[in-house]
TrEMBL record:
SUPFAM superfamilies for this protein: Sigma2 domain of RNA polymerase sigma factors, Sigma3 and sigma4 domains of RNA polymerase sigma factors
Keywords: DNA-binding, Sigma factor, Transcription, Transcription regulation
Provenance organism: Singulisphaera acidiphila (strain ATCC BAA-1392 / DSM 18658 / VKM B-2454 / MOB10)
Acetylation keyword on record: no
Protein's name according to its UniProt entry: RNA polymerase sigma factor, sigma-70 family
Length: 335
């Protein structure tokens, strides 16, 4: 019996499925394993892994019909004419990688889409039913192999559905791009929603997946933009707090240029109380002191951390600035 060992190398497993762009390389090693020499502990580990897997699925009326299984598991219906005519046109001004998504996987017809969604959910339904019959402590290798095959087949269909709709994310992100937004960041946020939408879509209701996904992606991008605006507003409010504390009502009229220099010095000294990375993130994100504004991705690449980690550092630094301002710690700094 042959076993597969997959080893991934790289920062992101998502991009690896597309075959292009940043992502891992995958090496495959085959090992001959006989039932006589099978390690019982290996089966126990496999069983625990499979029992921890998420097998949630969307129920379809045909799942309870024993005679429908062959039709459900059949190959996807094809149409050469439809396949050739359903390749979308890439928007202008996007990177070659994003443009390539419009050529890699043709759009699915409504019939193909419904077939794939039903098949994916049926495989998870069947795997869930089998798993319920398995005793984790006495799992048979044949049952674990069957369970793994169904899960791998369901995952392959999920990836196929995602790839066929990646261009939808690019299109929506391109149309909702702000002047200071990074297209790759917006696409990345939209891709997360797309993966989740594939899991939650109920094809039995007769709706098109693109309609459902477009609604979900637009809502997420709008929330992300609102959250970004809120963070920027909070930072600006924090600056106002700093400047308000820096103002001394006992002073007489001051030359505007001198006042501006004092304020800049006050903010600079307050920023000096932050850690190096916190200060670097705020300066880059908001262009403080004339610096160029940078996206989360750009700062992450510069600092060797993830976008999410940059976001966390930014939020923490803003909280520190407001705390320093409210505690009136600026006065001794200016002394």
């Amino acid at each position: 019996m042959s076993g597969l060992s997959l080893t991934t190398c790289g920062p992101s497993s998502f991009w690896g499925m597309s075959g292009r762009g940043p992502g891992p390389s995958i090496s495959i090693e085959t090992k001959e394993v006989t039932r006589a020499h099978r390690d019982p502990s290996a089966d126990a580990i496999r069983a625990r892994r499979l029992f921890d897997a998420d097998l949630s699925y969307i129920v379809h009326p045909s799942f309870d019909d024993p005679g429908a299984e062959d039709a459900i598991l059949a190959s996807m219906p094809t149409s050469a004419v439809a396949q050739a005519s359903r390749r979308g046109k890439a928007p202008t001004g996007i990177s070659p990688y994003l443009a390539s998504l419009y050529d890699e996987a043709p759009l699915l017809t409504r019939e193909q889409e419904a077939h794939l969604f039903r098949k994916m959910n049926y495989l998870k339904f069947r795997a869930s039913r089998l798993r319920a019959q398995i005793d984790p402590d006495r799992a048979r290798a044949v049952d674990l192999e069957t369970l793994e095959r169904d899960l791998e087949a369901a995952l392959a269909i999920r990836i196929q559905l995602v790839r066929a709709n990646l261009r939808l994310v690019v299109s929506i992100a391109s149309r909702n791009l702000g002047p200071h937004d990074d297209l790759f960041e917006r696409v990345s946020d939209g891709n997360v929603v797309l993966f989740r939408a594939v899991e939650l879509f109920d094809s039995s209701r007769g709706n098109k997946f693109s309609t459902y996904a477009t609604w979900a992606i637009r809502n997420q991008l709008a929330r992300a933009a609102q959250a970004k605006h809120h963070r920027q507003s909070r930072f600006l409010l924090g600056q106002e707090e700093v400047l308000a504390i820096a103002a001394d009502p006992r002073t007489e009229a001051v030359d505007p240029s001198d006042l501006q220099e004092q304020r800049q010095a006050a903010v600079a000294r307050l920023l000096a109380r932050l850690g190096d990375r916190e200060r670097r993130v705020l300066v880059g994100r908001y262009g403080i002191g004339g610096a160029c504004e940078q996206t989360l991705t750009q700062l992450g690449q510069e600092l060797g951390i993830t976008r999410e980690r940059v976001r966390q550092i930014e939020a923490r630094a803003q909280d520190k600035l407001r705390g320093l301002a409210r505690a009136h710690e600026l006065a001794p700094l200016l002394a």
